[in-house]
Each structure stands twice: as structure tokens, then as C-alpha cells.
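To the wet lab folks,

You asked to see what we're planning to order before we commit. Fair enough. Below is the target structure as C-alpha cells, and below that is the sequence we designed to fit it. If anything looks off to you, flag it before the synthesis order goes out.
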């Protein structure tokens, strides 16, 4: 049975949607329902469901803004609304389907099949990812595994020049000129890199020690072989010089 979460700012609409889902299908179990979008986001962060039924027209945060604020979304979202002008936008915002209120039983049946197919593909992808990660971890020359844009990248240490922080995000700078944006803090990315090769020389930078060409003592910068200039913080200067 599919475990579903419902989000609709109107209490009566939420109760009506719950009634429709329960009466139109015996394949859905409603595990939580919210009229407050922020409470719903907090719940989803630690309780991912099999599917989410989401209203569009809500105050403070509409349904499309809600989708963008979901962290680590790996479950399908179904848009529910009384207005049909949102159909195309719903699909562009990565909703798996779109249901008009009051919900038709045939439409709901089709949506349930879409949810099942989505979850089946997702489960297969997770198994494959697990196998790849285990294989990589056991290899003698272990590569660095990076999650980005719904895929796994396996990088050699020597391919990375440095990493730059931008709050909750980090950017990998590669030898070939590529920049890879990651939804991880610098501390998390640093934890993926081998300590003997990478050093955090600044609150905002981790560098590959083998890529350093010069250290400008007066300016407090290192120059990499790529000619990137990366600052060395005063707090890190002593430890950095000891490594060199």
C-alpha cells in the first residue's frame, strides 16, 4: 500500500481530498496531512513518503515554491487543484501527475500506476548506486564518488584542483576546466577527499596539495598549476607550512 502525505492550506479541502483518496482507492494510506506548508516540509525531511499530494494555491508558499523547497526529494509529487490552467507548469516543475478536484476514480487509478512505476525505477536506481559505491570502496585505487544532478561521478584525486564554498553549496574545480556545483557544505565535501592530498587552507577553500605551484608569503596566496590564486587564512598558515 502506498503511503501518502497530503498538503492543502484549507482544512475542508484537505478533509475532502482525504475522503476522496480513501474512497476511490484501497491502495493509498494517508500517513500525514498538513495545512501548514512549513510544517509539511519539516515532516518530509525525515519522513519521506511513497507519494505526495499537493495543492497549488496556498498562501505564503504556493505548491511550486513548496516543491523547490523539498530537501532530497526522491518521491513522486501529484498536483491537486480545482483549476486546470496549472497542468503544464505542474509537469515542468517535475510533478509526476496532475489531478483536478473533485478527483475522478479513473484518473486516480492512472496516477497510482504512474507512482508505482516511478518508485520501481527509483528503487532499481538506488540498488545500482549501492552496488557501484560498494565496488568503488573495495577497489585498490579508490576513486572519489560525487553525487550531482541525479548521477554519480567517479573522480581521481588528481583530477581535482580545489573546492570552493558558497554557504550550503560547494564548487569543484577540475583540471580540465570543468566546474561542478554540489549541494553540500565544504566540510562534507572535504570529508570525501583523501586527507594526505587535500588541505583546507581557508574557511572557503580546500586545495589539492599536489597542484600548488607557488606560495606568495606576502600576499597570503597559493598559486595552483592552473594559475588559480587561492587565499591562505592566518589561522591555517602554520599548519599549511608544516605540510609543505
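Sequence we intend to order:
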Amino acid at each position: 500500500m502506498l503511503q501518502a502525505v497530503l498538503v492543502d492550506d484549507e482544512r475542508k479541502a484537505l478533509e475532502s481530498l482525504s475522503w476522496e483518496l480513501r474512497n476511490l482507492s484501497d491502495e493509498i494510506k494517508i500517513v500525514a496531512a498538513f495545512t501548514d506548508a512549513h510544517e509539511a516540509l519539516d515532516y518530509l525531511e525525515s519522513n519521506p513518503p511513497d507519494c505526495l499530494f499537493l495543492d497549488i494555491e496556498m498562501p505564503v508558499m504556493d505548491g511550486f515554491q513548496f516543491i523547490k523547497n523539498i530537501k532530497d526529494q526522491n518521491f513522486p509529487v501529484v498536483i491537486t487543484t480545482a483549476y486546470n490552467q496549472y497542468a503544464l507548469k505542474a509537469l515542468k516543475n517535475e510533478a509526476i501527475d496532475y489531478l483536478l478536484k473533485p478527483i475522478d476514480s479513473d484518473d486516480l487509478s492512472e496516477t497510482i500506476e504512474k507512482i508505482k512505476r516511478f518508485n520501481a525505477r527509483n528503487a532499481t536506481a538506488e540498488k545500482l548506486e549501492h552496488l557501484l559505491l560498494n565496488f568503488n570502496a573495495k577497489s585498490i585505487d579508490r576513486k572519489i564518488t560525487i553525487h550531482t544532478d541525479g548521477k554519480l561521478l567517479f573522480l581521481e584525486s588528481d583530477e581535482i584542483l580545489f573546492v570552493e564554498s558558497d554557504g550550503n553549496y560547494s564548487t569543484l574545480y577540475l583540471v580540465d576546466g570543468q566546474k561542478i556545483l554540489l549541494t553540500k557544505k565544504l566540510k562534507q565535501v572535504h570529508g570525501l577527499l583523501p586527507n594526505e592530498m587535500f588541505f583546507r587552507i581557508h574557511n572557503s577553500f580546500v586545495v589539492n596539495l599536489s597542484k600548488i605551484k607557488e606560495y606568495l608569503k606576502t600576499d597570503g596566496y597559493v598559486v595552483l598549476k592552473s594559475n588559480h590564486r587561492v587565499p591562505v587564512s592566518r589561522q591555517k598558515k602554520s599548519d599549511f607550512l608544516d605540510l609543505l
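Structural context that might help your review: Residues 149 and 182 are 8 Å apart (CA to CA). The longest helix spans residues 105-138.

Thanks,
Computational group
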